[in-house]
What does this fold into?
Amino acid sequence: MEHLDEGFAGSQDCRNVVKNGYVEPKNATTEVALTNEEKRVLKEACKKDKRALFFIFQGVDESNFEKILDAKTSNEAWRVLQKSLQGVEKAKKVCLQTSRAKFEKLKMKPSENVDDYVI
It folds into this structure.
């Protein structure tokens, strides 16, 4: 979550709700018991969350969209994306390590000349 894009969430004033989520009242009775200020804050958090969820949906490719399609909150969608992309990062590291090892093993044979490889 530490890499939550400032350009996206910061400009939309949604970073906090994406990062921490927000708590909806469990039922109508709980919501009725809220003060007007608490209702206003809750409504604002809900609007920010829906806005952030919309922008997350807009910013992912089709395969990632399918992963987060059932997310009800921006926080939930963000966590799903983080978890799915962790595997990609691990695969990149393994590929890089393999390529580095192959590169380090490359050596010219005495009979080879650099000019053989220059176009």
Remarks:
- Helices lie at 6-10, 15-20, 28-32, 36-58, 62-68, 74-105.
